[in-house]
Amino acid sequence: xxxxxxxxxxxxxxxxxxxxxxxxxxxxxxxxxxxxxxxxxxxxxxxxxxxxxxxxxxxxxxxxxxxxxxxxxxxxxxxxxxxxxxxxxxxxxxxxxxxxxxxxxxxxxxxxxxxxxxxxxxxxxxxxxxxxxxx
Length: 135
Hints:
By secondary structure, the protein is mainly α. It has a domain of 89 residues. The chain is built from seven helices and two strands; from the N terminus they run H-H-H-E-E-H-H-H-H. Strands 1-2 form a two-stranded antiparallel sheet. A hairpin with a 2-residue loop joins strand 1 and strand 2.
């Protein structure tokens, strides 16, 4: 039995994937700022304009634009998308970190880069670091 065959060890090429999966699983349990705070009017306004500004808003196989328009909280990946997008909006996640998080969770696709580029490009320059009333 090699060292990597022992139960509970990570093969040498797996640590990055393992850590990314752990980080995603941890983040997926967090409620996005837009849900935690009804006062997140700036973020909510930004979010609502994305389906038009970035049409089609497709990341991986997900039509995130449709999810936003329908406020589709039942979509399996929508809560995660809201969470990381609110972190991008509130300066808690860099554009590069956002791109990695979204593609790492929703997957790459023909439209993914275009959609993410638009989400980042559409960010207001004067956005706050937290929802109003939560400072």
